Amino acid sequence: MGRAVTVATCALNQWALDFEGNLERIFRSCCPWKEYHGVYKTPQSFKCCSGYGCSDHYYESDTLLHSFQVLEKLLESPATQDIICDVGMPVLHRNVRYNCRVIFLNKKILLIRPKISLANAGNYRELRWFTPWSKARHVEEYFLPRIIQEVTGQEVVPFGDAVLATKDTCLGAEICEELWAPNSPHIEMGLDGVEIFTNSSSSHHVLRKAHARVDLVNSATAKNGGIYILANQKGCDGDRLYYDGCAMISMNGETVAQGSQFSLDDVEVLVATLDLEDVRSYRAEISSRNLAASKVNPYPRVKVDFALSCPDAVAVPTCMPIQWRHHSPEEEISLGPACWLWDYLRRSNQAGFLLPLSGGIDSSATACIVYSMCHQVCRAVKNGNAEVLADARRIVNDETYIPEDPREFCKRVFTTCYMASENSSQDTCNRAKLLAEQIGSYHINVNIDAAVKAVVGIFSVVTGRTPRFSVYGGSSRESLALQNVQARIRMVLAYLFAQLTLWARGMPGGLLVLGSANVDESLRGYLTKYDCSSADINPIGGISKTDLKNFIQYCIENFQLTALRSIMSAPPTAELEPLVDGQVAQTDEADMGMTYAELSIYGKLRKIAKAGPYSMFCKLINMWKEICTPREVASKVKHFFRMYSVNRHKMTTLTPSYHAENYSPDDNRFDLRPFLYNTSWSWQFRCIDTQVN
User: Fold this and answer.
1) pTM recorded for the entire structure
2) Which residue of 116, 159, 417, 457 sits 20 to 30 Å from the alpha carbon of 393, by its own alpha carbon?
3) Neighbours of 477 (CB within 10 A)
């Protein structure tokens, strides 16, 4: 029997296929705990050797080979000695590829544990690359590659669904999705006497999601007792997702250690010393648990000649429960996309960002996220983060530079550009200029009228016809085409200035173009294909207009950006149609035929509630019964689905966006739907009409 045990977990900012960097970050996570006896260390999310987002690279034998080469380095290293280590990698067993945890101690592999429940919904496609282990409580022999045999002296090791029995306790592993499954392995493992559970996860950030993960971990041990150690990846590992850390350690239903959700630290380690007797006494009085345990089908046990506790550790202080602090949605928007932008900037080897700043809410919110990134960089450097300092110096091309003032750093890495036309108002120009001054960006004013007239002139020369806006007697087709020309010219100019602005200023490097279309506009298709929404990346593409307005208010209060007050009060407008008496006559909601608040509801019903036109109508006649008649609801639903389906093709070219909402219309892998619809929806709308009548 043992008492005090020390367990550790971590959140590592791993990068897909960056084997060298991934190995270095694993080593850094191991170093602080050499002073402890018998640490059970679970380094990071699964796939920590290769990074998680390898996608179809998992098919390549190179990915398997390099993962084993990383494992070889870990086994050989003194940094991993006297620590039970749990790392993730793909493993080919009998010509079947599995997503595995490899658990080892002192140059010996104890167990290779394949994943049982694969993540295969939303952003995840694990069944495309891996096969779930379907043999419950079954272990087979796995023949190790020669490079591993030479280190461990083992020819075969256990492979399958088993647990580890040390001299003083019993340990079991879950992998990511298994925590979320209705029949999580920790239930049966706990009944079979497992006292310490580990879970290595790649769980991405979604607004208002963190509490769900925390609740799942705490509930895993609330009913059954035990110690639960969650490791979660952090950072952008090469795509639209931001993995938000939140590593944690829980015991008997309460959190005892909490990691940060958003951080620029590439390596974050949590450690907790806990008393195993607390687990045993907690379980002792749960009679229903003990009755179930007496009938459980036992797991195969791999015996480990090692103890996590010391015989004389009675006086060792143990950790007490803490209260988890959750960020508000506005804080999440300020921190998550900013961390994602920093990862993308430093890993793409670019010199900064360029943003077409219109003076509206969306582009202003994007600018505020970049400003928040600058705040986090300065804070990290002040706190002694040498890696962030080195990255900042490389980005600004100054080996002696120290980012101390967010506005000054913003001036170096962020260029904003107001692209005026004859349809732009002086108000939006002034708002953009004032915001740029307050955040410190390098600001440019450009007039695009000459370029627009040149493009329209080419059309007129070829066809002999000159299109006109509706207010001048033109048709809706003419007016829309003239608006699209302005929008697309802005995209062309944005990329031109991104490539050559620093050159013109005598500075090296190029800039990444930022887009600023929100999730609601994308859902409705209220954007010009290949306009300023076409960019390199978009930090707000998964965020609703409602949340962005709240975020703007947060920035007014927390960053003292007073320029945002007038931006908040102005009606959203594209400013693509002629002004009336010098004032904007065009507004987004009038153009769309629906409000942004309605769009958020449509989006959640369409994606999260899985509602087609008829089901959406059925839900909304109850939700809106106080404000709309059934016929009005039917008209709104039909209009939304017509516009959504007419514009769905635009999602195929949508700029890669930070994933923050579960109703995102991202066509790449999250929201898989046709982009050529029968936009009359005749059968579906007829069903609605029948109910209305």
Assistant:
1) 0.94
2) 417
3) 10
